[in-house]
Specification:
The chain is of the alpha+beta class and 165 residues long. It is built from four helices and five strands, in the order αααβββββα.
Length: 165
């Protein structure tokens, strides 16, 4: 058997076996690389692996355009809702002032109170609660754009000055 391996035919057979073994190892390495490449391709292209990169880029572009249109529509809706909310906020209390005082010398403890509640257009009301020994009175006076519709008491003028910037 050893004589057969040293003959020309034996050497050629050993060389062919070595080349076949190297080719088999190379084929296994290339097969593993191809599997990794296919897995990476599935990540990029999705399950439709038959699609080429240009077609995939076109489908991604269409998806992004659809997403952009959806986001633009939602942004327009939010802008409309924001405008409505800002309109409502303009009518809410934006400026206020409060003072406590003794309306009459008979009652102490600063039990009388005046409060101004105004919106962003400086319109609203001034409420005054005047406390006397056995009774309390509440007065409301309307303010339009910073000007009272009725004459204000000195305490009410002061609370209006406190409320307005």
């Amino acid at each position: 058997m050893a004589a057969e391996l040293t003959s020309t035919i034996g050497i050629i057979a050993l060389a062919a076996a070595a080349v076949a073994l190297v080719a088999l190892c190379l084929a296994a390495v290339l097969f593993m690389q191809l599997r990794r490449l296919r897995a990476d391709q599935r990540v990029v292209l999705g399950d439709r692996g038959t699609q080429d990169l240009v077609a995939h880029a076109a489908s991604l572009d269409a998806s992004f355009r659809a997403l952009h249109a959806y986001v633009s529509g939602v942004a327009e809706q939010l802008d409309g809702r924001l405008g409505v909310a800002e309109g409502r906020l303009d009518r809410t209390i934006a400026h206020c002032g409060l003072i406590r005082y003794d309306a009459y010398n008979e009652v102490s403890g600063r039990q009388s109170t005046s409060i101004a509640l105004l919106d962003s257009e400086r319109s609203g009301i001034v409420l005054s609660s005047i406390h006397i020994r056995d009774q309390a009175r509440l007065y409301a006076k309307q303010i339009v754009k910073g000007d009272p519709e009725l004459r204000l008491a000195p305490e009410e003028e002061e609370v209006l000055r406190l409320a307005l910037p």
